[in-house]
Amino acid sequence: SDVLEIKGLCARVEEKEILKGVDLTIHTGEVHAIMGPNGTGKSTLSSCIMGSPRYQITSGEILLNGENILPLAVDERARKGLFLAYQYPAEVSGVTNSDFIRAAMKAQTGKNPTLFKFIKDYDKACMELKMPEDLAHRYLNEGFSGGEKKRNEILQMKMLKPKFAILDEIDSGLDVDALRIVGENVYSMVNESFGCLLITHYERLLDYIKPDFVHVMINGKIVKTGGPELIAKIDAEGYDWVKKELGIED
Ligand code: ADP
Ligand code: MG
Ligand code: MG
């Protein structure tokens, strides 16, 4: 199995300290969920794992199978098997959806998938996600509804088959049917060579994807880790009890 380790990660954006010592270890075969109030650094953590140059890592480590990946650029981390589904997927005009995914697959493996196999896999993934049939030929995310953009991130993930996927609020903007489709598609990928970090506000997604570990992030740190029982408690009571229990001031 593979292992992604985050150790004492501190990061800032524009002089503001956002991550204040994040520790997290994920093995393939595991599903981890991170929950936490808005503005607590969840998307920042995702971006730092993927290598966004916007964030400055001030201390700590990110190791993939023991190798320090901090010096690697986003595309190099993708080649190593990391994938991030963005909270706000970008629209790209002039690049069709299928061309984009094909280019990403080539970038990841160094060779072009054959057109025949690509189309076969792409159509299958589209069908499983119940995406519209003309999707392949439309420009990347342009004119897509919020829910279609989110499903499109999962489509990319299914095609790229990463070792570790980080899904940042993949459930926001999804109606109940889309939520079930996305949830089932993600959960069906979990196996001994795929692990997942889910960032979510809500219990709903976790009806379909059963996390092995649930982490609570507050003020740039993981302050509590437990099992699925934490989800229901947070859904019912919010985060105040965690803050109180740990003596965290607002
Ligand atoms: P979450 O995903 O938990 O809601 P974020 O990681 O998006 O939190 O944001 C954490 C904090 O960092 C927030 O206070 C946010 O305003 C700030 N922040 C995030 N990205 C940027 C940025 N690019 N420029 C300035 N501030 C940012
Ligand atoms: Mg947010
Ligand atoms: Mg966020």
UniProtKB/TrEMBL annotation:
Keyword Cytoplasm: no
GO MF annotations in UniProt: ATP binding; ATP hydrolysis activity
One of the Pfam families matching this protein, by short name: ABC_tran
Residues of the ABC transporter domain: 4-244
Alphabetical list of SMART domains matching this protein: AAA
Domain of life: Bacteria
Annotated InterPro entries: AAA+_ATPase, ABC_transporter-like_ATP-bd, FeS-cluster_ATPase_SufC, P-loop_NTPase
Keyword annotations: ATP-binding, Nucleotide-binding
Family as reported in the entry's similarity comment: Belongs to the ABC transporter superfamily. Ycf16 family.
Protein name from the UniProt record: Fe-S cluster assembly ATP-binding protein
